[in-house]
Amino acid sequence: MYRQATSGLFKGMNARVTLIAIIMVVAALIYGAFFTGHLADILERMRRSVNPFLEWYYVLLIAFLLLFMIWLGVGRFKNVRLGGDNEQPEFTFFSWVSMLFAAGTGVGLLFWAVAQPILQFQENPFISEGMSPEAARVAMRLTYFHWGLNGWAIFSFVALVLAYFAYRRNLPLTVRSGLEPILGKYNHGILGDVVDLLAVFGTVFGIATTLGLGVQQMNAGLDAVFGWESSVRLQLLITAVIMSVATLSVVSGVKRGVRLLSEANFWLSIAVVVFMLLFGPTQYLIALTIESAGDYLQNLLGMAFHTNATVADGWQSEWTVFFWGWWLAWSPFVGMFIARISRGRTFREFVMGVLLVPTVITIIWIGLFGGTALYHELFGAGGIIQAVDDDVATALFATVAAMDLGMLGIGVSAVLVVLIATYLITSANAGTLVINTILAGGDPEPPTVHRIIWGAGLGLLTAVMLLAGGLETLQSAVIMAALPFSVVVILMVFGLLKALHSERFAARTGSRIEAPREPWVDLEDAGALPTQVKPDEDVKRH
């Protein structure tokens, strides 16, 4: 652990990093509350100024991470285990997959699974005519691209680095540990603090963006079920309720609260998917999902390096830059959460599980929900496009309404509202736990009082972002928050490679990889992970 305070309000935390992080968030809250319009304007201007750079920088970085993760899963390091050489996974495969999927994309996917295909169906750079059968196929391909392998490559990379250094190198489970081979002793000082602050900064705004989108969609669902019209006041109330429940849940810890909620989400999601398959245009949905998945895989390499360089229509910044920024901002949060539940797995198991399983689930989910919406626009009465153009948050519930199921449709909408709420709670409590783990120097059980403080802070920041302009402000905030952390991601690549090669060299020569020597505290008193060691203990490596 790094620089943990032993008394006072910051007991068990890195006092300096925690204090700076709190000041940053409080400053954002005060400014956003009193200068709401100005905040939205500043974020939008900042976004426009960096868009030309991000349109190729994010593309190149994410494409590289995908290729790099594939290499780690099949290359010379594929049998490296995240833990001892004979250590077994802590969680079952089902629990593992359900937790990483629920925390990774549950809320965002519920929001965009219909909205993005419908918006891309109307217009995108790869079609000459919108709202045609060809446009439907391309819309599905683009949605799979933004929610598939590339995005999960970001999550899986950050998670693998954190898990490797925590469980294999006995370093604290925090972002700065991934830079230990590069920064050395400086990693325990100001430079390491900056790395953790960037991770917290990206995580806070990434979670706030996701919560904001989910709250807007939940408001749309309550309108569909109870007729409660969309309003900022209702959205603020929903935010307060969600964050209160999430904060209570996160106190119970990952093995109880988060795991049980994640598994409940997973089963409820399966029930909704089965419903859509049985009551929707079944044959069309199966055919479209298979066809569009093949189209996605066939065009993956070209899309991964597409920068929209010859067309100045703003599509690249509005879609690809936003999504890659969103995934990057979420990567410290989801990466650390996945790392916490992935101990004992080999690189090959980890890469195959985190890259492939969520991507397959995502393809099926988008295929059924997005496919149903496209079917009703192509062959039915339509109406979904108009609803999405009026309010993108209504996309999912407009699709259910278009199925014309009467009271059954209202019941399904009610189930979807519950599903959105549980995904919001899962994301919020996991995010709160991860932020505190970073600020506690890697302690997986940070002090309860700080979990409560950050739960309240996330709720208030989400409220400010909603007041400042909703979707566009949320998008701008997450893009800007992700940019500085992307530099940390690049450095983590070099840190991991250096560590892996040193371990390989040690195995060949029969030498030993030493544990870090400074500055540690008494880890038994701090409640550290079993793999964390005191300075004078030997660390054996094979």
Automatic annotation (TrEMBL):
GO cellular component: plasma membrane
UniProt-recorded Gene Ontology molecular function terms: transmembrane transporter activity
Domain of life: Bacteria
Region (Disordered) location: 523-542
Primary location group: membrane
Membrane-spanning segments: 17-36, 56-74, 94-115, 144-167, 194-214, 234-254, 266-286, 321-339, 351-375, 395-425, 452-471, 477-497
Topology relative to the membrane: Multi-pass membrane protein
Subcellular localization: Cell membrane
InterPro entries: BCCT_transptr
Keyword Methyltransferase attributed: no
Similarity comment text for this entry: Belongs to the BCCT transporter (TC 2.A.15) family.
Listed PANTHER family: HIGH-AFFINITY CHOLINE TRANSPORT PROTEIN, HIGH-AFFINITY CHOLINE TRANSPORT PROTEIN-RELATED
Protein name in the entry: Glycine betaine/proline betaine transporter BetS
Highest classification ranks of the organism: Bacteria, Pseudomonadati, Pseudomonadota, Gammaproteobacteria, Oceanospirillales
